[in-house]
């Protein structure tokens, strides 16, 4: 017999066992993914085509086709919520991106002790928009909260922040803006990736700092801007903690974001089918925005590598 | 005003560490001056000080008669070609070249005319719509030069512009830069660590070492009359051979040296004899020749014997490394023709062009002057 045969068989056994071991390692993820992502994804779509109610047996649900989706057309609450959601996204996303970029640019200055400020400015994002922070937010904006106390101390009357439609929205918008850290860190990394000598060349060419920002920094930052834009759009459409804990969607549904409505439809009014349909509408909205963003990027996102390789031919 | 750039006792320290230790220098109008030196010698820092990208700790910088020591880079009348080219990656070649003109707010038609003219000079016309990524290294280099030319500055600054190119392209671009300089006649300061670039391009070479100037002079001056051992070794390829010897005596026009192989006499004036002092004898590779035993017998004094340890054949020329008998040091390098009949372990006798020999004291300073008419 060929003497190498034994080692080949041994090798085969090890490889077989390695595949087995490797598979075992990813099983927890697979189970989690199937159970908590794939199954609800499919199930919610199926439920959205039924009149399922949370308190009933699932078997009691009837197939109703697209009735749930049709119902939205006449649902004033849904339309109000949709409007509020769009307002929230259109206000928070640009503001947050602009603010994160501004802070990133400032933190990119070469100053003594700038590392401390980078950490300090990132802190809010570690705390983030968690339930605890949202609770704190509620206290801060409450009638006798920190802000009104501060205003009182300098002689201003208090504002009923959470009681007025305009200011209630303002308070949850602010909660989102305060989580600018992750976008900022991505911007900061993008800024650091721009070679210093481009600015030196621009200095010699006589471009002011302001012009350098618009003509060099911003164009070269567009891939990062694009990434942050997508992430922020997706996250903003899914905001839940703020309206749920701070304003409870009120007053007058003025901060009743779609995710909160989905939650309340399912777990307050037990309309599982309708709630699922709302989820899918939200999903489609996010998908459309993302798709449009991806489609649009060829007009405004500059990728140093790929695009020029394509253009290199002619 | 014939001085285009004038540095007066310029010093620069970073965090208390002085990297430019008092440099004074004049660059005449139309001159191409090359700063050359090993890495860390301060040559790039000096260029950045002229450009205004850094500010000197003390001293003064004048450009075209104006004190620009603390002036903004754009207010100095200088344009710079960066080592990395520093092209704006999101702009086309045309936009890169036009950038400074756009900032100046020139009319569109004028910008286009100037860009077209520069593109013509640098053969970039066909590439104007491309982005830097779609260009070869040499093309990017030309765009960087074009961006500098279009501004018609008083002074061009080049920061190791060829170091990112491969060897053959480097030679090609070197010729292009030389031709461009001949055509435009613009004052230029050129930084490089490559002494070949320095020798071939410069009207005047400034050899820098450890933040101070070792010597300033024309390429052939530096080659023929290095002021010290550092310059002698830095200029010339392969490097000058340096042998240790003892001073035995000197007359008005010759110097006698004691070496492990006996006495060597070289013609040299102005050497104050201090018998027994240790000196360095510098011999360029082309000033050592292999001679037959018969010739060696005739030459007597001034012949060095040794054996070949390595032969490097480059085709057109051959370098031989010869370990000298009795000398406790590195083998000397000699430059021979491409066909030189030579092999490793061969015993050889070397004759030297004694009138081309260099002599330095222990501190490295040149001793005396060569005799004869090779003034440059």
Protein traits:
heterodimer, A: 314 residues, mainly alpha, MetI-like fold, 2 domains, 14 helices, B: 376 residues, alpha+beta, Rossmann fold, OB fold (Dihydrolipoamide Acetyltransferase, E2P), 6-stranded mixed β-sheet, 6-stranded antiparallel β-sheet, 9 helices, 21 strands, elongated
What's the helix and strand layout?
The complex is a heterodimer of chains A (314) and B (376).
Chain A: H1 5-48, H2 67-73, H3 76-107, H4 114-127, H5 131-141, H6 146-153, H7 165-177, H8 181-192, H9 196-205, H10 209-237, H11 241-247, H12 258-267, H13 272-300, H14 306-311
Helix pairs in contact in A: 1-13, 2-13, 3-7, 3-8, 3-10, 4-8, 5-11, 7-11, 8-10, 10-13, 12-13
Chain B: E1 3-14, E2 17-28, E3 32-36, H1 43-51, E4 58-63, E5 66-67, E6 78-81, H2 93-104, H3 108-121, H4 137-149, E7 155-159, H5 167-184, E8 187-192, H6 195-201, E9 204-209, E10 212-217, H7 219-224, H8 229-234, E11 241-250, E12 254-259, E13 262-269, E14 278-283, E15 288-291, H9 293-299, E16 303-313, E17 317-324, E18 332-337, E19 347-352, E20 358-361, E21 369-370
Parallel strand pairs in B: 3-8, 3-9, 6-7, 7-8
Antiparallel strand pairs in B: 1-2, 1-4, 4-5, 9-10, 11-12, 11-14, 12-13, 13-21, 14-20, 15-19, 16-17, 16-19, 17-18
Helix pairs in contact in B: 2-3, 2-4
Question: Could you explain how this protein is built, in words?
Answer:
The complex is a heterodimer of chains A (314) and B (376). Helix content of chain A is 74%, strand content 0%. Chain A has 14 helices and no strands. In chain A, helix 3 packs across helix 7 (165-177) and helix 5 (131-141) crosses helix 11. Chain B has 9 helices and 21 strands. Chain B is an alpha+beta fold. The interface between A and B is medium-sized, with 24 and 26 residues.
């Amino acid at each position: 017999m060929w003497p190498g045969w034994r080692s080949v068989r041994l090798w085969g056994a090890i490889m077989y066992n390695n595949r087995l071991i490797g598979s075992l390692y990813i099983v927890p993820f697979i189970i989690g993914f199937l159970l908590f992502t794939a199954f609800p994804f499919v199930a919610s779509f199926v439920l959205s085509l039924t009149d399922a109610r949370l308190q009933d047996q699932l078997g009691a649900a009837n197939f109703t086709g697209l009735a749930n989706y049709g119902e939205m057309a006449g649902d004033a609450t849904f339309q109000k919520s949709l409007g509020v959601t769009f307002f929230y996204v259109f206000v928070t996303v640009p503001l947050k991106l602009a603010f994160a970029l501004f802070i990133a640019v400032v933190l990119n200055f070469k100053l003594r002790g700038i590392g401390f400020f980078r950490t300090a400015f990132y802190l809010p994002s570690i705390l983030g928009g968690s339930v605890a922070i949202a609770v704190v937010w509620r206290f801060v904006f409450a009638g006798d909260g920190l802000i009104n106390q501060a205003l009182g101390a300098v002689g201003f009357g208090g504002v009923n922040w959470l009681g007025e439609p305009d200011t209630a929205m303002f308070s949850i918008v602010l909660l989102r803006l305060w989580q600018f850290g992750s976008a900022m860190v991505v911007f900061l990394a993008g800024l650091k990736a721009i070679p210093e000598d481009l600015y030196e060349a621009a200095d010699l060419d006589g471009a002011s700092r302001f012009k350098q920002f618009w003509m060099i920094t911003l164009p070269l930052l567009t891939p990062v801007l694009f990434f942050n834009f997508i992430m922020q759009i997706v996250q903003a459409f899914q905001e839940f903690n703020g309206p749920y804990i701070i304003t409870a969607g009120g007053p007058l549904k003025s901060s009743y974001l779609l995710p909160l409505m989905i939650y309340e439809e399912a777990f307050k009014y037990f309309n599982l089918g309708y709630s699922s349909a709302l989820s899918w509408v939200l999903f489609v909205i996010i998908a459309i925005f993302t798709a449009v963003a991806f489609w649009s990027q060829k007009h405004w996102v500059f990728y140093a590598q790929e695009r020029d390789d394509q253009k290199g031919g002619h | 005003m014939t001085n285009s750039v004038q540095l007066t006792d310029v010093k620069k320290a970073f965090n208390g560490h002085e990297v430019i230790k008092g440099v004074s220098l004049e660059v005449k109008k139309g001159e191409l001056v090359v700063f050359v030196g090993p890495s860390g010698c301060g040559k790039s820092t000096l260029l950045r000080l002229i450009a205004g990208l850094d500010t000197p700790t003390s001293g003064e910088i004048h450009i075209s008669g104006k004190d620009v020591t603390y002036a903004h880079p754009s207010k100095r009348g200088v344009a710079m070609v960066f080592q990395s080219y520093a092209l704006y990656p999101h702009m086309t070649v045309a936009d890169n070249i036009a950038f400074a003109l756009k900032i100046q707010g020139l009319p569109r038609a004028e910008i286009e005319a100037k860009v077209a003219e520069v593109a013509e000079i640098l053969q970039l016309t066909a590439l104007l719509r491309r982005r830097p990524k779609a260009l070869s290294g040499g093309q990017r280099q030309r765009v960087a030069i074009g961006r500098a030319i279009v501004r018609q500055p008083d002074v061009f600054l080049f920061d190791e512009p060829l170091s990112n190119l491969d060897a053959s392209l480097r030679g090609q671009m070197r010729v292009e830069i030389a031709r461009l300089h001949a055509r435009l006649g613009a004052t230029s300061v050129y930084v490089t660590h490559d002494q070949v670039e320095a020798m071939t391009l410069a009207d005047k070479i400034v050899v820098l070492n450890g933040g101070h100037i070792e010597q300033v002079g024309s390429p052939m001056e530096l080659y023929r009359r290095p002021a010290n051992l550092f310059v002698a070794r830095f200029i010339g390829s392969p490097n000058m051979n340096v042998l240790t010897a003892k001073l035995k005596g000197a007359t008005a026009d010759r110097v006698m040296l004691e070496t492990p192989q006996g006495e060597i006499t070289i013609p040299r004036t102005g050497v104050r004899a201090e018998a027994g002092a240790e000196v360095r004898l510098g011999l360029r590779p082309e000033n050592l020749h292999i001679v037959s035993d018969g010739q060696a017998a005739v030459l007597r004094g001034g012949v060095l014997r040794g054996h070949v340890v390595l032969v490097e054949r480059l085709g057109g020329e051959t370098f031989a490394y010869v370990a000298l008998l009795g000398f406790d040091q590195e083998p000397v390098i000699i430059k021979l023709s491409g066909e030189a009949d030579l092999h490793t372990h061969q015993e050889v006798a070397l004759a030297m062009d004694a009138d081309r020999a260099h002599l330095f004291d222990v501190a490295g300073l040149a001793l005396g002057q060569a005799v004869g008419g090779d003034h440059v």
